[in-house]
From TrEMBL, chain A:
This is Phosphate-binding protein. Involved in the system for phosphate transport across the cytoplasmic membrane. Residues 1-18 form the signal peptide. InterPro entries: PBP_domain, Phos-bd, Phosphate_ABC_transporter. PANTHER family: PERIPLASMIC PHOSPHATE BINDING COMPONENT OF PHOSPHATE ABC TRANSPORTER (PTHR30570), PHOSPHATE-BINDING PROTEIN PSTS 1 (PTHR30570:SF4). One of its GO terms (molecular function) is phosphate ion binding. It holds the Pfam family PBP_like_2. NCBIfam families: ptsS_2 (TIGR02136). One of its GO terms (biological process) is phosphate ion transport. GO terms for cellular component: plasma membrane.
Automatic annotation (TrEMBL), chain B:
Keywords: Cell membrane, Membrane, Phosphate transport, Transmembrane, Transmembrane helix, Transport. GO terms for biological process: phosphate ion transport. It is a multi-pass membrane protein. The gene is pstC. It comes from Cohnella herbarum. GO terms for cellular component: plasma membrane. The chain crosses the membrane at residues 21-43, 80-109, 121-142, 154-180, 201-225, 272-294. Part of the binding-protein-dependent transport system for phosphate; probably responsible for the translocation of the substrate across the membrane. It is found in: Cell membrane. This is Phosphate transport system permease protein. One of its GO terms (molecular function) is phosphate transmembrane transporter activity.
Amino acid sequence: MKKTMTVLMALTLTVALAACGQNNKGNGNASNGGGSEIEGSFLASGSSALLPLVEQVSKKFMETNNKVSIQVQAGGSGTGLTQVSEGQSAIGNSDVFAEEKLDADKAAELVDHQVAVVGIAAVVNKEVTVDNLTKQQLVDIFTGKVTNWKDVGGNDQNIQIINRPSSSGTRATFEKYALGQKSEDLKGSIQEDSSGTVNKLVGETPGAIGYLALSYLDDSIKTVKYEGVEASVDNVANGTYPVWAYEHMYTKGEPNAAVKAFLDYMLSDEVQNGDVVELGYIPASKMEVKRDVEGNITK
Amino acid sequence: MAQSLERQKAKPHLVEEWVGKVYTLLCIAFLIITIFSIVYFVASKGLSTFFVNHVNVIDLLSGLKWVPEGEPALFGALPFIFGSFSTSILAALIAAPLGFCAAVFMVEIAPKFGRRYLQPVIELLAGIPSVVYGFVGLSVIVPFFRNVFPGQGIGIAAGAIVLSVMILPTITTIATDALAALPRGLKEGSFALGATRWQTIYRIVLPTTLPALMTGIVLGIARAFGEALAVQMVIGNAPHIPRSLFESASTLTSAITLSMGNTAMGTIANNALWSLALILMLMTFVFVFIVRWLEGRSKL
C-alpha cells in the first residue's frame, strides 16, 4: 500500500514538475572533434544570498556557450544541499559547509567549489551613537543580557534586535565568527528572512541592531566596527575582520563537462574581478587566508 | 429520410460522448490522485517527527519553546498556533462588520451604485498580490503603530489589519450573494406589516442570512490562517507568545516559510516544520467541516 502510494505520488509530482523539467544529468559530452564546444543543461539551486551572482554569470555563460542551458533557482541553502545530494540538481549553492547541514556520509559525497566570500557586518539604526562593539558586547546584546544602549556606551535607549531565523546561514556565520556561540530567539526580537527587509527595519526602527552581508550595506543604516576593525572588503581579504563565510557551489562527485566549464568560468579572472566584485561579494582568489569546516584559519 | 440522417449522426455523437466522458474521468482521477498525494505527503512527512524522531505530540502542541537547532532541540509549537489563531480571528472581527455593512449597502440601500462601482472595487482587493499587502503594512501600518502605541509596531495587531483587508472581499462577496438570494416575499411581507427599512434589515434580513454570513466569516478566517507572506513581513516572527498586540509574534505559516528552505530534507528540524504544515492542513479540514455544517443549517 505504502509503495503504491509512493509510486502514485512520484507520478503526480513528475507530471506537476514537467513544466519546470530539465535534464539534470546533463548531456555534457564535449564533442571531441575539432572544436571544444560543450553542450548540456543543468540546474543550480539553493542559497538566495548567492543567487544574484549565479544568475548573472549563468546568463553570460549561456551567451558564449549557446548549447548549454542553465536554470537557476533560489530556495535556501538547505534546499540546495538536499537537491544536489539527491541528484535533483547538478549544483547546490550554499552559504554554509555541507557538513553543517547534512549527515557526514552524505556530505562526503559532495565536492566543494568555493566561488566567493561574503563579509557580514553588524548594523545599527543611524541614531544609535555606538560605533564599535566588542565580541563580549555583541554576545551580551544577542543573548539578552544587555537591553539598553547605555550599557555599551550609547544613549539611554532600548535595544531592538532584528535577527535572522535560527536556520539561516547568515545567522549561523554571524553566531560562529562574531559571537562565538549560539544566540537566542529572544522575546520581542524581530526575525526576518530577507536582507532587504532587515535593512529597511534597522533603518526605520529606533535602537535597532542587526547584521547584513556587506553587499546590502547602504546609507540608510550605520555599520559598526567589530573589536575596532572596520568591516571592509580589504579587512576580510587580509584576515583582520573575522566575520565572513564562503559561498559554496557543491556538486555530487566530480562534475560533468558542462558543469565543470561553468564552474571554471565562475572562478575565472573575468568573473572573479568583474561580476563578483560588482555584486558586492569578495573574490575567492583575493583571500589571503583560508578557513576549513572547523573554522581554523590558515594563511 | 429523417431516420437515416439520424442514424448517420448517431455514431459521431456516441464517440463525442465517449471522449467527453473519458476526458472528465481522467481529470477527476488526476484531481483525486493529486489531493490524496498531497495529503499523504504532508501527513507522512509531518508524522515522521513523532514516529521517526520520537518527538512527543503533546510536547509539540503545548510546548512554549521552539529551538530546532539547539541542544537539546525543543519543538514547542504553541506560540505559532496561538499566533495563527489570534491574527486570523482578530482579522475576521475587523473585516466582518465592514463586509456586512458593505453588503447591506450594495443590496438593500444603494443597489445601483453599490453593485456597479463598490463591488468591483472590493473584488479588486482579492487580486492584489500578498507581498504588496505585506510591504504596505511594513511601510504604513507598522510605522504608524510604532509612533502611536508602545512597542515597535510589529506584531499581531499589524498582522490582523493587513489580513482583514485581504479577507474583506471573501466576506463581502459571500454576504452580498446571500442577501441578494433572499426571497422578495420575506422583505415585502415585513414592509407590508409596517416595518421600516432598518427594522427589516435588522430583524428579518440579517437573522435569515446568518448561516451564510457565518460561512463567509469562516472562509475568511481559513484564508487568513493560511496566508504566509504578508503576515510574515509585519508580525516579527519571534517564537514567543507576546504580552501585547504590538510585540513580535509568530504564526504557523511564517515559521514554515522562514525556515523551510534553510533546513535539509529528512532532518528533524525539517520534519518538525512539516508537522506545522500538518497542523495547518488539519485546521483547513476543520474549517471546511464548519462551512459544510453551516450550509446545512441555512434557512433558505
